[in-house]
């Protein structure tokens, strides 16, 4: 599995961010080709001090190639272009292969 994580900094208008994200951006995300599962939160906290991020998104893809194809697709380009409509504080996008742990 390959994970895509988007870390959003504090926006200029948090209420607009939340409303737009839930009503307009996430419906785009739901139809992203190759996306196996997704989750998000506006309740980002740090173990000490103040969290540097306002919100987080996680998307799961089968592998790096599936994620790259999804991002390069026409729909993926629409998802990426839409970020400017709500994320006025900017976003950090990271991705990585997930290694399963055993207890």
Q: What are the main properties of this structure?
A:
single chain; 103 residues; alpha+beta; four-stranded antiparallel sheet; 3 helices; 25% strand; globular
Mind explaining what this structure looks like?
- By secondary structure, the chain is of the alpha+beta class.
- It is built from 3 helices and 4 strands, in the order βαββααβ.
- Strands 2-3-1-4 form a 4-stranded antiparallel beta sheet.
- The mean pLDDT is 95.
Outline the secondary-structure elements.
Blueprint: E1 2-8, H1 14-30, E2 37-41, E3 55-61, H2 64-72, H3 74-82, E4 91-97
Antiparallel strand pairs: 1-3, 1-4, 2-3
Helix pairs in contact: 2-3
In summary, what is this structure?
With 103 residues, the chain is an alpha+beta fold. The protein is built from three helices and four strands. α2 packs across α3.
Order of SSEs = EHEEHHE
Quote the beta fraction.
25-35%
What's the gyration radius in Å? 14 Å
- What does the main sheet amount to? 4 strands, antiparallel
Mass-distribution shape: globular
| Strand order across the largest sheet | 2-3-1-4
Oligomer: single chain
The tally of beta strands, per DSSP, is 4
User: Spans of 5+ residues with little confidence (pLDDT < 50)?
Assistant: none
> Treating each run of at least 4 consecutive H or I residues as one helix, how many helices?
3
The overall pLDDT average reads 95
Cα distance spanning the termini: 19 Å
Instruction: Summarize the amount of helix as a percent range.
Output: 25-40%
């Amino acid at each position: 599995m390959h994970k895509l994580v988007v870390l959003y900094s504090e926006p200029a208008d948090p209420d607009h961010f939340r409303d737009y994200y839930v009503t307009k951006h996430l419906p785009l995300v739901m139809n992203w080709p190759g996306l196996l599962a997704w989750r998000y939160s506006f309740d980002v906290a740090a173990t000490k001090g103040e969290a540097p991020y306002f919100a987080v998104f996680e998307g799961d893809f089968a592998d790096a190639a599936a994620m790259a194809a999804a991002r390069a697709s026409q729909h993926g380009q629409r998802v990426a272009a839409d970020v400017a409509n709500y994320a006025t504080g900017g976003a950090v996008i990271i991705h990585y292969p997930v290694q399963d742990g055993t207890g």
